[in-house]
Amino acid sequence: MSKLFSPLTIKNVTLKNRIVVSPMCQYSSVDGFANDWHLVHLGSRAVGGAGLIFTEATSVSPEGRISPDDLGIWKDEHTPGLERITDFIHQHGSIAGIQLAHAGRKASTASPWKGGKQITAVNGGWQTVAPSAIGFTSDIIPPAELDSAGIQKVLTNFKAAAQRALIAGFKVIEIHAAHGYLIHEFLSPLSNHRTDTYGGSFENRTRLLREVVTAIRSVWLAENPLFVRISSSEWTNGGWTIEDSVALASILKSLGVDLIDCSSGGNVAKVIIPLAPGYQVPFAEAVRKSGILTGAVGLITTAEQAEAIVAEGKADVVFFAREILRNPYFPLQAVQQLGDEIEWAVQYVRAKPFKN
Ligand SMILES: Cc1cc2nc3c(=O)[nH]c(=O)nc-3n(C[C@H](O)[C@H](O)[C@H](O)COP(=O)(O)O)c2cc1C
């Protein structure tokens, strides 16, 4: 049996294989609601055989949305539409996960196909918030610095979102602490210039994430996995480093986090990232050495590449984004390339390739 198609049990949840559909914004919601697009998009990937399927960054509050079109989970009315999706995914033997997010200073922007620029309040946008009043770029209205009541509200929002995620039937939560969004902004000394207990030292900058983890763990079933996506490195002198990530991973593990999804970048504009196949895999490998499960992500596009990552002990699961967007049936083809077996949806069995 290939390593990529071997099951993985985390707490009480068993993934049938190590292929994870990475969170991918769809910018297709109205007022945060899931709709037919989300069912078809995520459902196709369940039919395609992925072990774990994450929703896109799902906002815990209206002001935490990247764009007005983001998926949300800030009110009870959002849960039935999400439950329809988790039911479908589970019927097809995959596991449904949700990425909980707050976009911080990168909120209130137009969806990519609407221009991707900041939307001001008069045009239907809103005042963004962040650890410090420093804009991602200098040409936009800067965020407002969160006060302690604002931080408490963020914590309450993440906790309530986790409660709703449970009701909606998700089995895995991933906290989005990467890509320059709110939690990452607190982690980084480049975007966090606070002088209170949430800024300055490593301990203070990691406080918000630690508190979010604890708030979620207080309502999330103990037997359900909790993942955290981090930007393992900011690729910038003076920024967050892989050494910081390794130190953070052990702390998160002690708070009940099961897996670190090792992405990078996103908090510093115009930084040069050495893009190449599997360029972030060394981060997953380094963090894994601290004794926690990891996910590798980024320019992983073939069965052989993913198999090697898992077989060589560099990561426990592989997140696919653009490749599985191009081809929702990637796992069905990958399994054949690795000479392995996977169950097909009964409706599609007649298309199963013959064995030589
Ligand atoms: C259309 C699109 C939307 C994305 N949205 C998210 C998101 O909601 N949350 C997130 O953490 N990353 C998001 N990403 C990043 C991916 O999850 C992934 O980390 C990145 O694309 C690298 O993987 P790849 O080379 O397999 O595409 C998005 C990527 C794409 C292409």
Describe the global form: globular
Q: Write the CATH homologous superfamily.
A: Aldolase class I
| Main sheet makeup | 8 strands, parallel, barrel
Tell me the name of the CATH class. Alpha Beta
Contiguous runs where pLDDT drops below 50 for at least 5 residues: none
Order of helices and strands: EEEHEHEEEHEHHHEHEHEHEHH
Helix amount, in percent? 25-40%
Report the CATH architecture: Alpha-Beta Barrel
Class by SSE composition: alpha/beta
Write up what this structure looks like.
It is a single chain. By secondary structure, the protein is α/β, with parallel strands linked by helices. It has one domain (8-344): Aldolase class I (TIM Barrel), CATH 3.20.20. Helix content is 31%, strand content 15%. It contains 11 helices and 12 strands. The protein has helices at residues 36-47, 79-91, 148-167, 182-187, 202-205, 207-217, 242-254, 281-288, 303-311, 322-326, 330-337; strands at residues 8-10, 13-15, 19-21, 52-59, 95-101, 129-130, 144-145, 172-177, 226-231, 259-263, 293-297, 317-320. The strands form 3 sheets. It has an 8-stranded parallel β-barrel with strand order 3-4-5-8-9-10-11-12, surrounded by 7 helices. Helix 7 crosses helix 8 (281-288). The longest helix has 20 residues, at 148-167. It is globular and about 60 Å long. The two termini are 17 Å apart. 48% of the residues are buried. The structure holds flavin mononucleotide. Flavin mononucleotide is lined by residues 22-25, 56-57, 99, 176, 178-179, 229, 263, 297-300, 320-323.
